[in-house]
Amino acid sequence: MKNLVVGLLVSALIVSCGNTTKQKVNEEISETQELAVAQEVNTEKVKFPVYDFEGLEPLLHQDDDKVHVINFWATWCKPCVVELPYFEKIHAEQKENNVEVLLVSLDMPSMWKTRLEPFVKNKGLKSKVVILDDPKQNDWIPKVAEEWSGGIPATLIYNKDKRSFYEHGFTYEELNTELNKFLN
Amino acid sequence: MKTLKILGLFALILSLGAFTITSDPMDDGYKIGDVATDFSLKNIDGNMVSLSDYDNAKGYLVIFTCNTCPYARAYEDRIIALDKEYKPKGVPVVAINPNNPEVQSGDSFEKMKQRAADKGFTFPYLLDEGQEIFPQYGAKRTPHVYLLEKTEQGNVVRYIGAIDDDYQDASKVEDAFVEDAVDAMLAGKEIEVKTTRAIGCTIKV
Question: Which of B64, B70, B119, B128 would be a feasible disulfide site paired with B144, CB 3.0-4.6 Å?
Answer without folding.
Answer: B64
